[in-house]
Specification:
This protein is an alpha/beta fold. The protein contains 13 helices and ten strands. Helix content is 43%, strand content 16%. The strands form two sheets. It has a six-stranded mixed β-sheet with strand order 1-2-10-7-8-9, sandwiched between helices. Strands 5-4-3-6 form a four-stranded parallel β-sheet, with helices on both faces.
C-alpha cells in the first residue's frame, strides 16, 4: 500500500488490525441487486447500502474507529447531521461525552437524533462564525477535550475502509462508485482496494454545484469552494477535501463524475421505485453518476455505494413528488 506523508500511521499492519476489530461493532452493509436498474443503464449493478448502518449512515464506521482509539473522555466535533449522530452514538457506547457544533438551520430531526444519543448540540449562525471557529472556542473552554475530525484523519479513513473490505470480499467488481464530500468515504475505498491488492477502479460522484474535488483532480492541485455549495446533497456541502483525503484520492481515483442536482433527485426516486430503499440525496450521488455518464460503465460490473438514508421527511416527500 502507498505511504502517505501526512499519515505515516496508515500502514498495511494498521489496516489489517482495523479490519479484524471494527466489524465486531458495525452492521454489515446491505448488498442489493436490481435487474431493472441494470437493464436501464446497461451494466450489472449492485447497491451497497449503508442506510441500515448504526445511526443511518457509513459515518458510524469512522466515528467508532476514531473514538475507540483515543483516551480523552470529552469530544467536540462539527457536523450538519450524520457525523454528529455517529459521534454521539459512539460516545454513548464508549462512555464518553460529546458536544456537536451544528448550524442553526439544521433540520430539527437531525438535532434531535444527536440529543437522543446523549450528545449536546451547540447551534451557531454560520454567517457569523464558522463551525471550525466555534469548535476551537469550545476546545479552549474545555482543556483536554478531543477534536473529532469528520474526514481528515487516518483513523476515519481506516474505519471507512471496512466498507470497501466488505464490497471487495463480496464480488470482483470492475468499478466502485462512491459519493464525495470531504473525501473520508472515497479515500477509505481507495485504501481498501490498495490493501486488498484489487484492480477495481474507484470513481467518485460529486454534486456539480460543489465540484471542488473534480476541479482538484483536473488541475492536480487541491482546490476549494469559495462558500458552502448550494446543492441538494447536504452531506457533500464541504469547502474542500481534507489534506490526507486529497493525498489519497489524487492518485487513487480513476475519475470524479459531477452530478447535477436534478439527476441526483431522479436517482433518489429510482431507489425508492425499484428497490423500496429510502436514500438521502448525498447517498444517491453514486447512482446519479452512473445516470450522468452511462456510456462510461457499459457492460461493467458496478457497485454503487449508498452512503446513508438520513433525510428530512419534508425534503424526501418533495423529492419523491418531483417538486
Amino acid at each position: 500500500m502507498p505511504r502517505y506523508e501526512s499519515a505515516p500511521q496508515l500502514t498495511n499492519d494498521y489496516i489489517t488490525s482495523v479490519w479484524e476489530m471494527l466489524p465486531r461493532y458495525v452492521r454489515p452493509t446491505l448488498l442489493l441487486q436490481s435487474e431493472t436498474l441494470s437493464a436501464q443503464l446497461g451494466c450489472d449493478i449492485t447497491i451497497a447500502s449503508e442506510t441500515f448502518q448504526y445511526t443511518g449512515s457509513f459515518k458510524f464506521r469512522a466515528a467508532y474507529n476514531l473514538l475507540s482509539s483515543v483516551a480523552e473522555s470529552r469530544i467536540v466535533t462539527a457536523s450538519s447531521g450524520n457525523y454528529g449522530q455517529a459521534v454521539a452514538y459512539a460516545c454513548k457506547l464508549l462512555g464518553k461525552k460529546c458536544t456537536v457544533v451544528m448550524p442553526v438551520t439544521s433540520a430539527q430531526v437531525k438535532v434531535a437524533a444527536v440529543q437522543s444519543h446523549g450528545g449536546s448540540v451547540d447551534l451557531i449562525d454560520v454567517q457569523k462564525i464558522s463551525r471550525n471557529e466555534r469548535v476551537q472556542q469550545l476546545l479552549d473552554e474545555q482543556p483536554g477535550a478531543f477534536s473529532a475530525q469528520a474526514y481528515d484523519d487516518y483513523r476515519v479513513v481506516a474505519g471507512n475502509s471496512t466498507l470497501g473490505m466488505e464490497i471487495l470480499n463480496a464480488a470482483a467488481f470492475d468499478v466502485i462508485l462512491v459519493p464525495v464530500g470531504g473525501g473520508g468515504l472515497s479515500s477509505g475505498q481507495v485504501v481498501a482496494r490498495d490493501h486488498a491488492g484489487a484492480r477495481t477502479e474507484i470513481i467518485g460522484a460529486e454534486p456539480q454545484p460543489g465540484n471542488d474535488a473534480a476541479r482538484s483532480l483536473r488541475s492536480g492541485t487541491l482546490t476549494y469552494n469559495e462558500r458552502e455549495p448550494a446543492t441538494i446533497a447536504d452531506g457533500a456541502r464541504t469547502l474542500g477535501l481534507g489534506r490526507l483525503n486529497w493525498e489519497i484520492l489524487q492518485h487513487g481515483v480513476a475519475d470524479i463524475v459531477e452530478v447535477p442536482d436534478d439527476i441526483t433527485l431522479e436517482a433518489l426516486r429510482r431507489y425508492f421505485r425499484y428497490l423500496n430503499l429510502k436514500v438521502e440525496p448525498t447517498g444517491a450521488l453514486s447512482l446519479g453518476a452512473l445516470m450522468t455518464a452511462p456510456e462510461r460503465f457499459q457492460g461493467q460490473r458496478v457497485c454503487c455505494i449508498v452512503s446513508g438514508g438520513n433525510v428530512d421527511p419534508t425534503v424526501y416527500a418533495s423529492a419523491l413528488l418531483g417538486e
